């Protein structure tokens, strides 16, 4: 709910007390009494009213004691100022449009509706103004979302370095039961992934969370190997995953020029000649080997053309034919009057 101004009515002061406790930490009776403009015994009465409402207010004893809001079995009423309410709503909307939602597809919509219902008219108009001027490059609802319980279970296993047993469905529709040592969770291009190690094969794995239908933490713990962080592991894994075609192209340019059209999740870039590596300025144009794995080749000719750099196709021969055909179509279009 949007934060109301403090009033002289007891109900208003009780809500203000709840807001102060929600900001975190331990609040002394003296501090709360000063903020509310009441005596200490009145603060204690207000605290009891919150407890009667089944809100988890704890009394902290000792010299630096007071009151604090502890985690409870249900979410207490939340109070936001204007900027906080807008931040929450925009986060829900943007997350939904980017595909970063959980399996409860309507959760973000119902949460947004609940907040918007209690917004003051002025603030609601401000939000509508933002939404009317906001555009997204990706359409909503285009990604499968992970199950919320799976996401929370895997995240807890990542934090405590615990193995997790999962039931996974691969892209061919085959289901299997696996054990995973999860290193981290990565959101990439509208999808959720977990990166981890397979203790049986001792190989790295990048698994889509929406394809995990069940997850259960196992006893014990594991040591995460040194190396790249989860995001880098994922990008490297996506670039080297098995696909129908293995493409090798040599491009004369810089790594930055190539990465502008072929990011790390799509292609690997390395020096084409070993002797060029030592002492070579990374921003100097030179022949670089680009390795790409793809299910289709039809998208590559326009991408190679957009590099606007000299290139040589090493493999496959089929890609050369596609590039020649693409060049012929461009030349034919350019000659039209």
Largest sheet: 5 strands, antiparallel
Radius of gyration: 28 Å
H/E series: HHHEEHHHHEEEEEHEHEEHEH
Helix content: 25-40%
> What is the total tally of β strands?
11
Distance between the termini: 63 Å
Brief summary:
It contains 11 helices and 11 strands.
Sequence-ordered SSE layout with sheet pairings:
Blueprint: H1 10-22, H2 29-36, H3 40-52, E1 57-60, E2 66-69, H4 82-97, H5 107-117, H6 121-132, H7 148-160, E3 164-169, E4 175-188, E5 191-198, E6 203-208, E7 212-217, H8 230-240, E8 245-253, H9 255-259, E9 267-271, E10 286-294, H10 300-307, E11 311-315, H11 317-335
Antiparallel strand pairs: 1-2, 3-4, 3-7, 4-5, 5-6, 8-10, 8-11, 9-10
Helix pairs in contact: 1-3, 2-3, 4-5
What features would you describe in this structure?
38% of the residues lie in helices and 23% in strands. It is α+β, with helices and mostly antiparallel strands and 337 residues long. Helix 1 crosses helix 3, helix 2 crosses helix 3 and helix 4 runs antiparallel to helix 5. The longest helix has 19 residues. The protein starts with 9 loop residues before the first helix and ends with a helix.
């Amino acid at each position: 709910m949007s934060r109301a101004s403090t009033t002289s009515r007891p109900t208003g002061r009780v809500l203000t007390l709840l807001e102060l406790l929600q900001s975190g930490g331990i609040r002394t009776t003296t501090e709360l009494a000063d903020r509310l403009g009441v005596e200490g015994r009145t603060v204690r009465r207000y605290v009891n009213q919150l407890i009667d409402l089944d809100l988890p207010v704890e009394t902290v004893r000792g010299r630096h004691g007071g009151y604090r809001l502890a985690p409870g079995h249900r979410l207490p009423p939340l109070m936001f100022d204007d900027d906080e309410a807008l931040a929450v709503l925009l986060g829900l909307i943007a997350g939904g449009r980017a595909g970063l939602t959980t399996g409860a597809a309507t959760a973000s919509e119902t949460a947004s509706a609940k907040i918007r219902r209690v917004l003051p008219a002025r603030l609601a108009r401000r939000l509508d103004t933002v939404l009317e001027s906001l555009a997204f490059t990706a359409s909503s609802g285009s990604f499968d979302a992970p199950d919320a319980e799976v996401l929370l279970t895997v995240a807890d296993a990542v934090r405590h370095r615990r193995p997790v047993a999962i039931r996974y469905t691969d892209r061919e529709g085959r289901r299997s039961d696996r054990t995973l040592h999860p290193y981290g969770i990565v959101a990439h291009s509208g999808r959720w992934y977990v990166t981890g190690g397979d203790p049986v094969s001792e190989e790295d794995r990048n698994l889509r969370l929406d394809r995990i239908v069940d997850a259960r933490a196992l006893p014990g713990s594991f040591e995460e190997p040194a190396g790249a962080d989860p995001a880098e592991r994922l990008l490297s894994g996506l670039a080297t995953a098995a696909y129908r075609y293995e493409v090798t192209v040599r491009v004369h340019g810089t790594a930055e020029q190539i990465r502008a059209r072929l990011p790390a999740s799509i292609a690997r870039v390395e020096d084409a000649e070993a002797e060029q590596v030592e002492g070579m300025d990374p921003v100097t144009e030179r022949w670089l080997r680009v390795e790409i794995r793809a299910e289709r080749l039809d998208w590559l000719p326009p991408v190679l053309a957009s590099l606007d750099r000299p290139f040589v196709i090493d493999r496959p021969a089929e890609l050369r034919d596609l590039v020649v055909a693409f060049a012929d179509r461009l030349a034919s279009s350019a000659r039209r009057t």
